[in-house]
Design a protein that fits this description.
Helix content is about 50%, strand content about 10%. With about 450 residues, the chain is an alpha+beta fold. Among the domains are: about 1-155 and about 270-315, no CATH class; about 345-450, no CATH class. A four-stranded antiparallel beta sheet has the order 5-4-6-7. Strands 1-2-3 form a three-stranded mixed beta sheet.
């Protein structure tokens, strides 16, 4: 009964509305930033090949029209912020942003994935209940919305933190301070602390253990009213620090702003009152104020949101279906909130073998890949396989019959000595891309204990 009653509870819409405004503006700024830095050209237009996600090989950059795709994404994020045709705008944003992220997995980042799934979730939430252009057009706004619609954002944020914290409970992170030790020691050029604090072993362990404890406790600190302000200050301190130390783009600021949703609706209402551009909607007399937002398809929305969270609970654990060390073979690593847990460097040399005449030659990777693509490909087995297929097809079209592709690939993981990661005697061109275990990945000569 208590479970059923929960879904009948109502709440002021201000937390979700402010979240919508902040989310839309941050995404618009991110798109503008991406454009101005020239990354559209260097990451999506210039490369000769693009590494695709399994099942999404059909998602490709659109040449010069890729700029239009980014424009649509940025414009839709602005419309989300002002609440104009909200449902249509958030759907367009979700589709365009996700398409951009699927164009090349070389650019995969956890926070890009977070934005995609968050924008999908927002499709089913009444974030335009008030303080939106839709209120002006429809001449109505709403006093309350279903409480679960606000709590669903909190739940998603809490899950991300908890999964990230659980993933940090491993022997490399806690007992070797890896890979933080490598990264922090490289910050010797920072003023004052670069040549002192960043080089101390105790500081590396402090940051490792502190990061794990932070991720596992911050959702509870934000949920409990007595510790909420303290928790939010920790969020600011933690993410600003990581933003300064590591090149992770907009992620720290997205998490800081998103965490505001944990505060009571009165706080959000006070912030919304500081936004003068929405006052014309509030003061317009012919806008009817309706007591409760009514979903036309609330049951459908609840079903979709429930399935969404079920998938989010399952996906991070899919690595358990594969044998071997996750950090090494990376089978099931992406989309599992394993944030900044590995530092890998690799070198992969490909050999093209002509089975017909027995001759072979080596490939110059820089003739096909950008420096970023070559770096990512060199240590990730699924990249290596996809690139091998590209080379096999390329040289087959060049007239070489019965092509076979072999690779001599060495990878160093979290400060360990390099070791061969791919069986050099396996013709990768003959191996199909699939979700099955890649038996041609050699095992790691070490054990990493943990989840």
């Amino acid at each position: 009964m208590a479970f059923t009653n929960y879904f009948k509870k109502k709440s002021n819409p201000y937390p979700l509305v402010l979240f919508r405004i902040c989310f839309g503006l941050m995404m618009m700024f991110s798109i503008i930033r991406f454009w101005l830095k020239g990354w559209i050209k260097t990451l999506y237009i210039d490369p000769k090949i693009h590494f695709s996600y399994l099942g999404f090989e059909w998602v490709k950059p659109l040449g010069e029209y890729t700029y239009i795709l980014f424009f649509i994404c940025g414009l839709s994020s602005f419309f989300v912020a002002i609440g104009y045709r909200y449902v249509l705008s958030i759907i367009i944003f979700f589709l365009s942003f996700t398409y951009i992220e699927l164009m090349d997995k070389t650019t995969y980042l956890n926070h890009y994935y977070f934005v995609s799934i968050l924008s999908f979730l927002l499709i089913f939430l009444p974030a335009n209940a008030t303080h939106s252009v839709d209120n002006f057009l429809n001449k109505k706004k709403f006093k309350t919305i279903p409480k679960w619609s606000i709590d669903s954002i909190k739940l998603l944020l809490a899950m991300i933190y908890l999964f990230a914290g659980i993933a940090k409970i491993n022997s490399d992170w806690l007992f070797k301070a890896m890979p933080l030790k490598i990264w922090l020691q490289s910050k010797y050029d920072l003023p004052i602390i670069g040549e002192t604090l960043m080089q101390k072993d105790w500081f590396h362990y402090f940051m490792s253990w502190g990061g794990m404890i932070y991720d596992l406790t911050i959702p509870f600190l934000l949920l409990w009213k007595k510790t909420r302000l303290f928790g939010f200050l920790l969020v600011i301190l933690f993410h600003l620090s990581t933003g300064i130390l590591f090149p992770i783009g907009m992620f720290p600021y997205i998490m800081i702003v998103s965490s505001i949703i944990f505060f009571d609706s009165d706080v959000h209402n006070k912030i919304l009152k500081l936004l003068p551009k929405f006052k014309f909607i509030k003061k317009r007399k012919n806008i009817i104020e309706i007591s409760t937002f009514q979903y036309k398809r609330e049951k459908f929305a609840l079903i979709v949101v429930s399935l969404f969270f079920l998938i989010q609970l399952i996906v991070p654990f899919r690595y358990m279906l594969y044998p071997g060390e996750l950090f090494w073979n990376e089978q099931g690593y992406r989309f599992s909130w394993r944030v900044m847990l590995i530092e890998k460097k690799g070198e992969s040399v490909f050999r093209i073998y002509n089975k017909e005449n027995g001759k072979s030659f080596y490939v110059q990777n820089e003739n096909f890949l950008t420096p970023l693509q070559e770096k990512q490909m060199s240590f990730q087995p699924d990249f290596i396989l996809e690139y091998a297929h590209y080379l096999g097809n390329y040289y087959s079209k060049k007239g070489i019959k019965n092509v076979e592709v072999y690779v001599d690939s060495y990878v160093a993981l979290n400060g360990r000595l390099s070791q061969r990661i791919i069986d050099p005697n396996v013709d990768l061109f003959s191996k199909k891309r699939s979700l099955r275990h890649k038996s041609w990945i050699l095992p790691l000569d070490d054990e990493i204990k943990g989840f």
